[in-house]
Design brief:
about 30% helix, alpha/beta, single chain, nine-stranded mixed β-sheet, globular, 8 helices, about 250 residues
Length: about 250
């Protein structure tokens, strides 16, 4: 075989042995700042999305630690739901992890935060939004006045939907914040889901739990009037990844 033909054959065999496009890597936090089953529920959204993410868990008890070196290989970082103690959650992640995620997003990465993940997006945690995350419970006009698991209506892209809710946030964006894309609002007009820029990256946040599957409702003795809301989690993910389909009432 001539040298050019040999090189072509080697190139062809290499291409056959190497995937044409590797799945993008999503890092999902799992640890003290999260809650049982929350990380896995977010991971399921990512793995079944049109992006077909490869999911790896990061956290103090995981093989991968949350730091700049680990994030260097990722496309998206996801912070799932957790408890009610934001300072404790931030402390358990640690200063190195908080700074690494902030730099990751500023450099073009994507942040996907659910419930506690939305609280931690503000200055109390990663500091990737121009605003403050506060509880929707007890807000003027809020339909929820307790911290127990429940379902609550939201208007997602103008359509009434019902979501699993437990002490979730609303984001009070600064009047100077720009580029905020509101996907959903609670009935009192507080923001329930949003996407906003941070540096070269993008931050998707939701206060309730669109990732919750039927097991969540069964465990809490709740009924979802919609029957299923996973497509809302996928909608938020797509807006976080692509910045597509802006909407605000």
């Amino acid at each position: 075989m001539s040298a050019p033909k040999a090189l072509l054959a080697l190139f062809a065999s290499t291409m056959l042995a190497t995937p044409l496009s590797a799945a993008p890597l999503a890092l999902v936090y799992r640890g003290p700042a999260g809650c049982e089953g929350c990380s896995e529920a977010v991971a399921a959204v990512l793995e079944t999305s049109k992006y077909q993410f490869k999911v790896e868990y990061v956290g103090p008890n995981e093989p991968l630690q949350l730091n700049a070196e680990t994030l260097k290989h990722a496309t998206l970082y996801a912070q799932p739901g957790g408890g009610d103690d934001v300072p404790y959650a931030a402390q358990s992640i640690g200063a190195e992890g908080l700074a690494a995620v902030r730099d990751f997003v500023a450099s073009g990465g994507r942040y996907f935060g659910v419930c506690m993940g939305a609280y931690l997006a503000s200055a109390a945690g990663f500091g990737v939004i121009d605003g403050q995350a506060v509880s929707y419970v007890g807000r003027p006009g809020s339909l929820v006045d307790h911290d127990e698991d429940t379902v609550t209506p939201v208007y997602w892209r103008g359509e009434e939907r019902w979501l699993y809710y437990q002490s979730g946030s609303t984001i009070l964006f600064s009047p100077k914040a720009s580029g905020v894309n509101v996907l959903a609002r609670y009935p009192n007009n507080d923001i329930a889901a949003s996407v906003s820029p941070f540096g070269a990256g993008r931050v998707g946040l939701v206060g309730p739990h669109p990732e919750a599957d039927q097991t969540w409702y069964d465990a809490a003795g709740l009924v979802d009037p919609d029957g299923h809301t996973a497509e809302l989690a996928q909608d938020l993910l797509a807006a976080t990844m692509d910045g597509a389909r802006p909407f605000d009432e």
